[in-house]
Amino acid sequence: MYIATVALCACGGCHNSLLAAGEPFVSLLSEHTISFSSYLFDRRTISPSDVVLATGGIRNHEELEIAREIERTSRKVIAVGSCAVYGGLPGARDREEPPAVSEGAGLPEMLENVMPLDSIVGVELYLPGCPPPPGLILESLKSLEGRYEPPHFDGTVCSECPRTVEVKPVKSWSLHPGCGVPEGSCLLNHGLLCLGPVTRGGCLAACPLEGSICIGCRGPSDMVLSSQLHSMYSDMVKYVTLSTASRREKVEKKLSAVLETIYLFTRRDPVIRAKVKERVPGE
Ligand code: SF4
Ligand code: SF4
Ligand code: SF4
To answer: What is the whole-number distance in angstroms between the Cα of residue 265 and the centre of ligand 1?
Structure first.
C-alpha cells in the first residue's frame, strides 16, 4: 500500500502517537511505502495514496485546499485524532473573532469556523482521541489491509476504569484534574467531574488510572450517540444524579456551567452541536 500522513490544523501529537507505536510501526513500514508525509517530505503536493492518515481539522483556506487534495488523491482516509474527527481543541477558537491578517503577510485567510475533516473528505475510519493511543492507529491501518477488523470500542471509559463508584451524596463539585484520591475510588465520589461515564473507551482509562479526571478527549460513547438526544451533557446529568444521590436540578445547574469543558473536543461537530444546543438550559 502507498500510505500518506497529512497534518491539517494539528499540533503534531497524533503523528507522535503513531511514532510511539515503535517497532510494530517500523515493521509495517517495511511492507509498505510512505508516499507523502507532512513532517518528513520537503514538498507540498500529496502523491496518490491507498491510505491517508489525516490529522487535524480545517481552519483556514490553505487547509481547505489540502483537504480537497486528499479527497482527490486518496482511496481511503483515516481521520486520526479528535481534531480530524470533531474539529477538536482548535474549535475553541470559534468563540472569538478570527484574527485580522494583513494583506501581503503571506498567511492563509481563516475560515469562519473550524470544520471536521469529513466536511470535505469522505472518511473510511474515525479514530478519536487527543491523541488516539498508538496501538489503535496501527490496528486501523492493518484493518485497511484486510488483515483485522477495524478497532471499535462501544463501551465507556468507566467500563475500562478500575475505580468503582459508590452511591453516596457529594458535598461540592470541582473541575480540578484530581490528585490524592485513593486508588479504586471513583473520582465522582470525591466531587471531581470525570467525564468517563459518557466518553468512548479504548484508552484503557488512561487518565483516571493516574488519578486525573477524564476530559472526554475520545468524544461521546456509542451509548450517548444512540440516545435520543445525542447529548453528553444530558447523559452526564443522568449518571451523576443517580450515582451520587444528588438532586437533578442541582446537577443540571452545575454541569450547564461547564458545558465548554464537556464539549471541549466536540463543539465543532455539527450534528452533536445542533442537538446539544436544544438542550442547553437557559438558551
Ligand atoms: S487530536 Fe490532540 S494530539 Fe491530535 S492534533 Fe489534535 S490537539 Fe494534537
Ligand atoms: S467516573 Fe471516572 S473515575 Fe469514576 S469509574 Fe468512571 S472513569 Fe473511573
Ligand atoms: S481518560 Fe478520557 S481524557 Fe484521558 S485519554 Fe481516555 S478519553 Fe482521553
So the answer is: 10
